[in-house]
Amino acid sequence: MDLYRSLLRAYPPAYRDAHGPEILATLADRTDGFSVREGAALVRAGLRARLSAASPGNPWADGLHLGLTLFTLGNLIAHPHYLSEAFAQPLAALAAVGFAVALLRGWTATAAVVFLGLIYALPTDVPLFRFLGDERGVPHVVCAALLVLAGWRAFGVRVTPKPWGLLWIPGATLVLVVVVDAAFFLPAYSSAVPGVLPEAVVLVGVLGAALLARDPRWSLAVLVVVLLDLVPFLAYLDGSGPLGRAYAVGCAVLGVVAAGCTVAYRKGDVAL
Predict the structure, then answer these.
(1) pTM over 0.85
(2) CA atoms within 13 A of residue 65's CA, in its CB half-sphere
(3) Of 36, 31, 30, 39, nearest to 9 (Cα)?
(4) How does pLDDT run across 140-165, given as a tens digit for each residue?
(5) Residue ranges per structural domain of the chain
(6) Within a 13 Å sphere around the CA of 4, how many CA atoms are in the beta-carbon half?
(7) What percent of the chain has pLDDT over 90?
(8) Can you give the chain as a three-state secondary structure string?
(9) How far apart are alpha carbons 109 and 149 in whole angstroms?
């Protein structure tokens, strides 16, 4: 039973303290020794409990918020020349960072106000973000989603603050893009393609959380990021090379799976 007791660490501490002895007693009655099948089921159930405890709020608001947060962090510092532009436009760069932090921590009303300033009051080509100058309406879609979240908040629907650890996404993106840009002479848009790898890793992990927890918030987040990333990228597909085409296909596959999970795991009894 020592191994089962170790696997119980997959559960949140509070759940483990309350139900751990009962789970171990049930396993002792059902198996004589350690069972790989029972151990895998124990870990799976524990991770599902952790995911449920990590996001206790409304799944639709939380999924939309997580998707916007991942999209924002994945687009932060997405190209080397953005850093030099940031020094040339310090106010716009500071507002961009403020928006990312406000969104990360779930301050949706503040994030909406700052974002409105970014796309309407400040210069269109705001440093640090690659999507604000997009002409296919992505900034306006993001703005509309922020206003929806702010409106939900007015009705008492709050989103779960996301961990500071997600800031590794823009950090890893910057490192990858700078390294690739220095090592290879790539077209302007293609040089940013390797920088999507950290975001892609996170999206695969979030989609795995959706499959494990059977909760639509996780798959909805992936769907939001894929739609916001893929639609504007299609305009550059011809000049992006094999790497860009592979990225587009990967986004499409993730989007289809995420859409299927969102529909399959939807919760009709969730009250707004």
Answers:
(1) no
(2) 30
(3) 39
(4) 888 889 999 988 888 888 888 998 98
(5) 2-53, 55-264
(6) 21
(7) 12
(8) CHHHHHHHHHCCHHHHHHHHHHHHHHHHHHCCCCCHHHHHHHHHHHHHHHHHHHCCCCHHHHHHHHHHHHHHHHCECCCCHHHHHHHHCHHHHHHHHHHHHHHHCCCHHHHHHHHHHHHHHCCCCCCCECCCCCCCCHHHHHHHHHHHHHHHHHCCCCCCCCCHHHHHHHHHHHHHHHHHHHHCCCCCCHHHHHHHHHHHHHHHHHHHHHHHHCCHHHHHHHHHHHHHHHHHHHHHHHHCHHHHHHHHHHHHHHHHHHHHHHHHCCCCCCCC
(9) 8
Tokens (6 digits) for 95? 């507002």
**Predicted local distance difference test score (pLDDT) of residue 189:** 46
